[in-house]
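Reopening this ticket.

The earlier resolution said the output was attached, but the attachment link was broken on my side. Pasting everything inline this time so it's all in one place.
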Amino acid sequence: MTFADDPQPSTPDGVTLQSDVTVELVKSSASDSDVLFAARVSTLGEQSIGELEKDPERSKGLINYLMRDRHGSPFEHNSLTFLVSAPIFVFREFMRHRVGWSYNEESGRYRELQPVFYVPDASRKLVQEGRPGKYVFVEGTEAQHETVQDVLGDTYRQTYDAYQKLLAEGVAREVARAVLPVGLYSSMYATCNARSLMHFLGLRTQHELAKVPSFPQREIEMVGERMEAEWARLMPLTHAAFNANGRVAP
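Inline output:
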């Protein structure tokens, strides 16, 4: 059996099982100064751009004020584009985020989909306990993890074989893909601004500084964590203010 916590193991039949997601920042126009000039236009008009290099502490205070009092529009004057590779079920949750986001995903209509599938590694909590609205996930047993790996691996191989059989019979890709499960990896470009990203992070990550608790599925949280790391590097003052004010999007 191929174990899911290996980086990208391939089984002898060419099926790849993996447990991680990848997030690459492919393009950005995003800095703390984008927030500052957008905010200061309220009082300085076109002269606001000239204020960017003045008094760093004052700039830090302004960003914190905007975040604290939820003046959100200055945080929209920037752009980040990510290339994300993750299981399809992650994208179905992701695309609920519409305001301030744009997506383009690889198409199973126009290309043959590759046999790369998701199997959780040993760190993934497997067992849900409690009633809806008040439940927790706890560690699974070694036997449960082995069962998950075996069942998912066997299912992926069977469904991909069926997909290949349909294609070989001349069935259109857009029809043949119907046999494939949501554990199949897909890729997409996702473009957002800092405000929309903060809203996403507030819902899709757990954090000790969050005023409002969130209970995201772990796999989409993994994507959020990698996006946040890139954003924090580009806009450190904005990221610090987001954390200091309870990780609530302005």
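Reporter confirms the inline version is readable. The two ends are 48 Å apart (CA to CA). Residues 34 and 77 are 6 Å apart (CA to CA).
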